[in-house]
């Protein structure tokens, strides 16, 4: 389920932490995150240990099929009573690997896992309004805009708005049968499709 014909979503191993820290320190990445903090290896290890005990978060590495880390993605604020969760921390580490459709594959796998395995009723995310690429990516999968969070983050000396996008399980199952997701999942799981495996 957490695998296509070119990527896998797997658990984070301690050995992945330095690479993840380097991605989080990339200005092209943190400009789209709410915060940037220089993080020591000790702080990272503490975060890693803490999240292992936290059932409200699933933090994953995106890897190629050999298991080599190429990015991250997370599902968090998992609320089992209300069957909802947020997702994000979406990063493809190598800028050269971006814009080649891997982000869309990650999104398809996260949607399938959230609604067909975690049995969520609602999946939502917050995206800074200037991140047009990611907003367009989510909308193409059927995420709907629920509202604007005004002045939600202080970025580069000024306040920035964020948008909330969400999908319900009923909307997911329509996408799953007739939307972009249906086509993508069929292609992604088709072993005859060689479509440039991630290096
Ligand atoms: C966000 C990220 C994971 C997306 O992955 P990606 O592999 O680059 O994305 P894809 O190639 O799958 O493209 C996804 C969609 O983005 C949209 N897109 C691409 N470039 C765009 C641009 N310049 N402007 C607007 N939309 C754009 C397209 O809709 C594309 O869909 P398509 O398949 O119909 O072309 C990756 O770019 C990244 O790591 N960025 C830096 C970190 C970041 O911004 N994280 C998100 C924080 S919310």
TrEMBL record:
InterPro entries in the record: Acyl_CoA_acyltransferase, GNAT_dom, PseH
Gene3D superfamilies linked: 3.40.630.30
Record-listed E.C. numbers: 2.3.1.202
Enzyme class, first EC level, given as a word: transferase
Single annotated GO MF: acyltransferase activity
Keywords of this entry: Acyltransferase, Transferase
Superkingdom assignment: Bacteria
N-acetyltransferase domain span: 7-170
Pfam families associated with the record: Acetyltransf_3 (PF13302)
PANTHER family per record: GNAT-FAMILY ACETYLTRANSFERASE, SPERMIDINE N(1)-ACETYLTRANSFERASE
Name the record gives this protein: UDP-4-amino-4, 6-dideoxy-N-acetyl-beta-L-altrosamine N-acetyltransferase
Provenance organism: Paraburkholderia kirstenboschensis
